[in-house]
Queue: 4 jobs
Job 1
Amino acid sequence: MSGPNEDNTQLSSHFLGDLLDSIIVDVASECHRIAKLGLDHNLEEEEKELRLSAQARARVADPSNSGETNNKYVVDIFGRTHPSVASEIFECMNCGKSIVAGRFAPHLENCMGKGRKARRKVTRSSTAAQNRYSRGSPVSTYSPYSNSTSTNRLSNGTPVGEEYSNGTYEEP
Amino acid sequence: MSHSHKLVIKSSVSRPPTPTPTPDANKDHQDQKPSLQEINTKFIESGEKERLKELLRERLIECGWRDEMKALCRAFTRKKGRNNVTVDDLVHVITPKGRASVPDSVKAELLHKIRTFLASNAA
């Protein structure tokens, strides 16, 4: 009579095999289902890739699409074109002037006191804003603007504690 | 009234004698070693089989075994053609590699748990 331990080992292996077979059938069944329902889009990988690369080559060779650098008007992946300078006009929230969107960032530099000459411009709103800057507390109304103007200044390593540091730091 | 609570054994009552346990080869007070069938039943009915199956499934997913098996199936399906594949085909494709590539740690973990179950249920 074999000891209980040996029996147990064999028995355990038997049960493990049983569990494993069951899981194997599950996996096979699932793969079968995917195959029959055509849910595996990458199945005919090679064929598809050949087809897609042929399409891409055709598109590149097509003379009606120029490369990005030749054209003033770049075509994006949806086929739309954008002019190189944004032409929409809207009103600056800081000073109320009508500004062309493409010139808005440089306008803000002056308008909000970044440029050398701009400091001289004292309007009620900008002094109030600058006072707030010097106290160091963030001003939520100006957040969309200062990001665009301050990013190029801060990229040289000045600490970005507040977003509104362009008013407080001395220019080099 | 008190009489009804006493156990009264009347000789006129005929009933079959209580069977005495028949002596057997290897005995304790316990029954003989349960059959495979009985163990299996207990395995399933106690929910242990399902629990262990889920554990095994989880481990096999974690270690990438399942993905390997699926890749084998896909390769086979690609060759044979998706409309000609049967579940049986796929089972035969996966079984040898599947049984062989279970990581040792996973095997050990499951075997340990099964052995524990057997020890407490079948001796």
Job 2
Amino acid sequence: MMISAAIVFLITFAGVYSQTTLTLPPLPYAYNALEPVLSEKLMHLHHDKHFFAYTNKTNMVLRLLCNETKDGDKLKEIGNLPIEIILTRLGELPETYALSLRHNGGGYINHKLFFSLLKAPTATAAENKPTGVFLEALEKSFGSFDKFRELFSAASVNLFGSGWVWLYIDARTKTLVLNFTANQDNPIMFDKNHFVIMGIDLWEHAYYPVYENRRAEYVENFWRLVNWPVVSQRYIESQTKRSDL
Amino acid sequence: MQTIIKLAPRTLVPALSRCSKHTLPDLPYDYNALEPIISGEIMKLHHQKHHATYVNNLNVAEEKYNDAKAKNDLNTMIHLQPAIRFNGGGHLNHSIFWQVLCPKEGGNQPSGALADQIKKDFGSFDKMVTQLSNASVGVQGSGWGWLGFNKQEQRLQVATCSNQDPLQATTGLLPIFGIDVWEHAYYLQYKNVRADYVKAIFQIANWKKADELFQKAK
């Protein structure tokens, strides 16, 4: 009994470390936990369909990459790295792999992060604020929390097409920066040392079932969902120079 | 990735312009005429909200552009160009889209000159449909799939554009038939299964109109 359990444990452990199979993380809350801001139906679609599809497709591509015999073992080696590392090395991959991983792998890490940053909504946006070291950092970079929120919201409302708005620590300046990416791009694809603190999904699927075309309303209500302790923790980690993403 | 240098809060609430140049065209059919392929709910939102917003925002951007031009304010003119491209493209694209769709007809295929050209350039109608479908489903993020006419080379081609980039301005091809693959075009009905929507849309393709566009393009 003990031996078989140990074997199962080792297989699972080894599986995690080989990183060729991404798992779909469950939501850290019930599907209806974000009501009324994001409906249960929307969360099911977003997690069980979209995030699920990105996970599967990334795994399919990684499987191919790990069996790729072109270039000796180089591509296989890259394929066996954690997805967060692979996405910083897309330039080393043949175009078809790079494009597919950029889209699907990007979709995977973006949604993994996004769902982890949300929590049951407060009654109003105004009452949901960060505190401590992270709040100080926001005030230092943007003047005030309200100003940060205003800029982030404006960027979100004005983004054309599908994409994300991000708050991240810039690799070079080491300061908090606001920026956007198109489609499923993530800041780490542009510099592996960008450290993402938070982001908002602005693809229509992220809000359409509840808000239809009213993206501004979605963005306004998003602030009721932000899990500031989790976001603050990411900021603190970035300052201790840990590289877990 | 582009850096946001400065962001003043802007809203996309359309302002009423005294000299509106662009207007929202009526649909050539009722909102529910394309059922069951595209629901009345989607058609209403798509036309009255999305297309209308493009029209309104285009008018606002153009008015600002004209003001800036009158003052020789080149910086502002350049700053407004993405908004004109996006909203103008959205207006152009959707205006064509409503025309090239029509209520479902049995045995829906092109005939005449367009049919011949499709056969010539793709081998068969089905091969063109496959190519256009694959391209449309494969668009990453938001965009459009198009059957376009290359006037220089006198042949039809499948192309895709991202966001609201209009086909002609972006590629030089003249639009013959197009498929909106922004999520808003299908989400309420098809959810994330874009492939089902793209497959189904050929049942409501207005090949008569496409043929008209083709004749004009030649």
Job 3
Amino acid sequence: MDKFRMIFQFLQSNQESFMNGICGIMALASAQMYSAFDFNCPCLPHYNLAYGLGILLVPPFILFLLGFVLNNNVSMLAEEWRRPQGQRGKDPAVLRYMFCSMAQRAMIAPAVWVSVTLLDGKCITCAFCTSVPVETLGNTSHPGLSQGEMKRVLARIPCKEIYNGQELIANEVAVRYLRCISQALGWCFVLLMTTLAFLVRSLRPCFTQAAFLKSRYWSHYIDIERKLFDETCAEHARSFAKVCIQQFFEGMSTDLASAHCHPPRKAPADVGEAAEKLLGITDQGTMNTALKSWHRCKPPLHLHPPALPSGNGWAGEEQPPTHPPVPRREMAAYYSRV
Amino acid sequence: MDRFRMIFQYFQSNSESVMNGICGLLALASVKMYTCFDFSCPCLPWYNMAYGLGIMFVPPIALFLCGLILNRQSLVMLEEWRRPQGCRKKDLAVIRYMCSSIMQRAMIAPVIWIIVTLLDGKCLICAFSSSVDPEKFVGFANASLVQVQQLLAKVPCKDDELMRNNTSRKAVSKYLRCWSQALGWSILLILIVAAFLACWLRPCFNQATLLQARHWSNYIDIEQKIFEETCCEHSRLFAHKCILHFFESMRQEMKLHSFSLPREGEGAEGEENLLRDITNKDQVNKLLKMWYYEKPPLNVSQATQRHPLGRDQCTQYKFSQHTGV
């Protein structure tokens, strides 16, 4: 238990930093994904807007959901939310705290994607190139084109190789303009996000500190209780399995002994440990039967009480006479299940 | 206890160095961000100034706020400032000390951004190229006002078709860069001199107050950390007890329903106790179902039975029983 205690303390004290580490990794992954992504503007009038805004907004949404999926506390939150009330009241403040802290962490990678996209400028250039103010930036002396024709020409701005509107408006001028707007939006977005984060963090101690301490304690408690319960169940399952298998072997050996009309096995004077572990199965035929029986007819999930380890089976010396009929009935029961 | 003592000594000695480390990382991040950032001056008359000054001042504000957010001590200071007085008086000197140390650390990354920007020069060239006096430069002296504005605005863009072969463009660019770098180095010099004077002159004024303030700010920080540690330890013990009580109450319930065979129960340990009465599939299933449908109340005082207590009852649980010191 001491070892478990140390590990739990470590995990608990470091759970925050573990989750922060995952956040940081996701943020770096989103920046890397953006740089690895091969942006390809379609350079057609309506497709540009759809493509540009799609690249700007859809991956952040996916990253946000991924942030929830990777957070192993989501199942804890769902469980706490959906459980019946029972004897323990539900505190909505705790649920809100858990959800808020998860949502805050999940927001980091999408915010990084949007910032990097805006600061790079390709998306906005692609999406809004048809809205460039040609009157102020372009050549006023150029013969007028129809709306549709102008839009088609402007849509090709991001694709320098096929751009044919150099007399209308210089490609570099338009790209610089759009990129300037995009970067300004990007920095404003970064400033807005940091201001929001700052306000959220600094207003909390001013208003709701006591409620916050309560919610934080109980959300940690729920997490630890779940882990400890799983541990305890695992220990129980282990003991259960051990006794079940032991009873199976004992049952096998005594059953075969009685079926073959062997004389009852004499308990040797000194029962060595190895002999005890053999559990009464000492020849090839018996072992093969035991293995076949394990495969064909697993024992029921029901331990009988005089089980706990004496190792000799019930063909021992001091069993009161009322006991043997009970196990034998059990064995008959499990044979008949085949 | 020994283990705790070692951990606390570590925290105490390293709280400052953790903060300094974060500060350094943020400074490096700001330089990296500047080099990665693709500066692209719009080269249009009014946009230049907005863009150049925006790039020079908006990221430092964001970096300053980041520095405040990432610093754990800012939360501690806010809590100390806003807490009700209660039984412990508030010392404003301590709060002021914490505030000033937080601000100093948070200011480093923004200052580095501004200095790197000035030493590089692109921002100032972009922002002030329209504001130079055209008379000083040969290529711009003879044009009309509007044309001069347009041409000067295009100075930062080397590849623009009008500016490609213009020698006066280089002259304007060098002139502005010289001013920018001079400004950058001057600011750096002033800041370093100010820091130097502050370090040297501080012991001459109020050294005793400073030592006290530093001690108590450290104390508040550590007290907060220890409180969180103790709460974690307490919640772990509480959960452990709660689960054991749950298994115990389940076991008693099973005893009522199962056939009672004489049990050779002597010297039972926790594990074997768990196993001895929950020994078949249905009982295990029932236990798991009860765990989901009816979690036990949060009350581990001795006389607990299965009566409906809510969470508020946990306050009657005496904390002193479980400090384990």
Job 4
Amino acid sequence: MESKEVVKLLGFWVSQSSMRVEWALRLKGVEYEYIEEDIFNKSPLLLELNPVHKKVPVLIHGEKVILESFVILEYIDETWKQYPILPQDPYDRAMARFWAKFAEEKFLDNAFKAMCTQGVQKEGYLKQAKEYLEKIEEVLIKGKSKFFGGENIGYLDIVLGVISYWLPLWEVVGCMKIVDPIQFPSTTLWMENFRNHPVIKDKLPPRDKMVVYYQWRSKEIGARMASARKS
Amino acid sequence: MADNKKITLLNSWISPFGIRVRIALAHKGIEYDYKEENLSNKSPLLLQMNPVKKQIPVLIHDGKPVCESMVIVQYIDEVWNQKSPLLPADPCQRAQARFWADFVDKKVYSLGRQLWITTGEALEAAKKEFLDCFKLLEGELGQKPYFGGETLGFVDVALIPFYLWFSALEHCGNFIMVEECPKIVAWAHRCMENDCVSKTLPDLEKAFGFLMEIIKKQRADK
């Protein structure tokens, strides 16, 4: 039977995308072997398994290789039926997929770039990030239950979960404030609930290591963005 | 099941994203009301139905909006699941299809646009990336008639609307698609043998003319 095949995950300790997959596997009680990948010195295994994007996470299930965190989440949900993370109703599923894409491509992307930049650029990304967060706060989170999955964590919680832990760290590193609790009370409450869930709180990267990492990484990406603007 | 509830599509005729949804609806034999949007003067209905991104396509089913083209295509496949599935049943094959549809989403549109707006060295670099991307897609297609296997599938629907762009991109990048990616061109012609594609895609010449006008304007604005 499928679920007896060995499950391995190639990840990177600080990657939000890798962590999403680990959260999903743990919520479903699926045993897996974690393989740490140094994304700055990519292994032959990673390059062989993901020749197209050369990125983590990579889920290996028996002989099968699954790539891209959103794709992996859906695969996990379709393969291990306990603790369903996507809603049953097609319309609710479409909403979850829409908001996951929006949160990743619009909100998180701008928040990350705000961390990496200075001055006018930073202000621009911050303004965008806050506008997108307003949509998330008003349309998505306000007035809803504890998690998007109801009383249980679901797909959209897992995707957005980054906001609860990575984003506050990005705010520290980037000397900026995005999630003002007064302006975003529902988001703030959701973040706290998510962070305190027993499965989640047990699987978060070490905060001090993350700060050091993002201090270096944000400067490196900021420099790359600046030189791209000049060319 | 869902058949007797009203369906409306808010769209723009030239949008490859809208074409994806129209192909999926035609593939399933679903009737719907079509509303052409003027994107420089968006209707109150569009702004109400997609307040977050204010973009087409939007599928309104029984009064409820669904946005983002491949989210809509999956929704259509899940609701009208009795016939002509676009995604396979097996979870691993579904993951492969979603991966490649995501690849098309991340690469084809933005690389194609780079070809429109860049010149000189930047254009040559964009052209190389664009063609590399299509060569990867050829690898994924392999010997199969469609990405979906024997019939049109999820990835075919994601990619075929960009066939409309080929002539304009060849013109901008000074290359010939059938020489660079013969398998993709053969696949596109094969897709066009399906009514749901050939009756949905706008006339190629009309599209070429329209795209060239946009390209001229965008290059002039730069």
